[in-house]
Amino acid sequence: MKPEHLELLVTRAMPYGKYKGRLIADLPGPYLNWYANKGFPPGEIGQLLALMQEIDHNGLSSLLEPLRKLHPRDEP
């Protein structure tokens, strides 16, 4: 894991699928677990989904809060 990947979790949106447009940090745990069981996609998106699944699975999502404050997202 690279430290900048944590920042990407709160700034990068899911590019496709059921949760297209939702921040990776906001994806629901069951969806992340589904990917963990199915296999994460290749490339950066797969790395970010795997990282978020690990964070969520271990109950560490609150560690992203300081980064969320640094990168507020405008609601549509």
From TrEMBL:
Q: What's this protein's name?
A: Cytoplasmic protein
Highest taxon above the source species:
Bacteria
